[in-house]
Design a protein that fits this description.
With 252 residues, this protein is mostly helical. It contains eight helices and two strands; from the N terminus they run αββααααααα. A hairpin with a 4-residue loop joins strand 1 and strand 2.
């Protein structure tokens, strides 16, 4: 019959609507179907979904901060209430929202603690130290400067060096105190922070060694000049003394 396929489709649709709880009078779904009429089963399904999602997040989430305290604890609580219907759902739904929020806040707080000393050092390097470094004259300028002008530059450069070393060591000390928070980062960030820290430690040690060597050379040159000046003074005094003695002898 020509209308047989249409009739079959209508019957299938009517059956599906009934299965889903469709009310022909209100033209809506009133929950009387065999699926949604069982609210306990619906809640069990939602609970199972939440459990699997959070369990998957816990296993794959790289951030360790707050995971055991909030996320893993929540998963255990949901697991204990699986297949307990509406009452089980009602007993944990508020905790799901609260614990997930607490976990996210814990991650943000941990990240902020690590970011603070990094941003502090970056700010000094980008603004204060860069400005001071660019004010140091190059070799060409030094050749045309007087000794007095060069002398005025030495002291600020020494202070800049000491400030840079002090900031680097302070940065390292702060990161040492934040070891747990650094280890809680995802592995890429954790490795990046650790690599950067090691480079700063290496460069700080190198600057200290170079500074010590330059100071030793500077002190050696100063001593050489002082000794030379003292010897010259003795020679001049002796020469003057000899000349005066000769002159006195001639006048007698």
């Amino acid at each position: 019959m020509p209308n047989e396929p249409k009739k079959l489709l209508e019957n299938l649709c009517d059956g599906l609507q009934t299965f889903l709880g469709f009310d022909s009078a209100s033209k809506g779904y009133d929950g009387s179907g065999i699926v949604y009429s069982d609210l306990d089963r619906l809640c069990d399904g939602v609970m199972g979904f939440l459990y699997q999602v959070l369990k998957d997040v816990s296993e794959k989430q790289p951030y360790e901060s707050g995971k055991r305290m909030f996320l893993d604890r929540l998963i255990r609580e949901i697991y204990a209430k699986l297949c307990s219907g509406v009452e089980g759902f009602k007993s944990v739904v508020d905790r799901v929202i609260s614990r997930v929020k607490q976990y996210n806040e814990k991650v943000v707080d941990s990240n902020d603690k690590v970011s603070e000393p990094i941003n502090e050092l970056l700010g000094k390097v980008r603004d204060e130290y860069t400005k001071s470094i660019t004010s140091i004259p190059d070799k060409t300028d030094l050749k045309i400067m007087t000794p007095e002008e060069i002398g005025k530059i030495v002291s600020p450069v020494d202070k800049l060096r000491d400030a840079c070393i002090s900031s680097a060591k302070s940065f390292d000390t702060k990161l040492t105190k934040l070891t747990k928070h650094i280890n809680d980062l995802n592995y890429k960030l954790r490795d990046s922070v650790k690599t950067t820290r090691e480079r700063i430690q290496l460069e700080t040690a190198r600057v200290e060694a170079m500074s010590k060597k330059e100071r030793e050379n500077y002190d050696a040159v100063i001593k050489l000049l002082e000794d030379s000046a003292e010897n010259l003074k003795k020679v001049v005094n002796q020469k003057v003394k000899n000349d005066v003695s000769s002159l006195v002898a001639e006048l007698k």
